[in-house]
Design a protein that fits this description.
The protein has 162 residues and is an alpha+beta fold. 38% of the residues lie in helices and 19% in strands. The protein contains seven helices and six strands, in the order ααβαββααβααββ. Strands 1, 2, 3, 4, 5 and 6 form a six-stranded mixed sheet that branches. Helix 1 packs across helix 2 and helix 2 packs across helix 6. The longest helix has 16 residues. It is globular and about 60 Å long. It starts with a helix and ends with a strand.
Length: 162
């Protein structure tokens, strides 16, 4: 988890978390909410935002964030909640065909691809909750957008976002 990552990577880890949160902010992925604007049920159903830190081969530290969707299993079918993922067999077959046909192949990385997904208006709002240092780092990125939404809960900073 990110707390362990901060102990291991220190300031470089914090910079990686901030960079990942900056990307979400730049793409308007979070719309902060006051905790009291949410019902008790919405707060209980809010997905905890997780951050994983990984050291890349070149020594850089990369932060990867995601919402912990385990709470959704109670009301969202697995088929609707999972991301489509290519199978290894499918990838290998495609590579074999490309090689056999001597095709030019390129790969593309779409930064924050999940942030660019449009959610239908009639879908239920999903809220995430960032806590501790992660909430503080988000507020630090753009204090005018986030600081007023940060609150203390049991001695720890929290922020809810849609």
């Amino acid at each position: 988890n990110w707390k362990k990552g901060l102990k291991v990577f220190g300031e470089k880890g914090e910079d990686a978390i901030q960079k990942e949160l900056q990307q979400i902010h730049d793409m308007e992925g979070f719309q902060p909410k006051h905790w009291y604007e949410l019902t008790k049920e919405e707060r209980a159903d809010a997905l905890k935002y997780l951050m994983y830190l990984k050291e890349k081969r070149d020594g850089r530290i990369k932060g990867r964030g995601c919402a912990d969707g385990r709470k959704q299993r109670a009301y969202i079918p697995k088929a609707e909640a999972s991301s489509p993922t290519a199978t290894l067999m499918g990838i290998m077959l495609t590579c074999m065909i490309d090689a056999y046909e001597k095709r030019d192949v390129a790969t593309v990385d779409i930064p924050g691809a999940f942030l660019q997904t449009k959610v239908p208006e009639d879908d239920r709002d999903i809220h995430v909750m960032l806590d501790g240092r992660m909430a503080e780092l988000l507020a630090k990125i753009s204090p005018e957008d986030y600081q007023k939404y940060v609150h203390q809960h049991r001695g720890q900073s929290q922020i809810y976002c849609k």
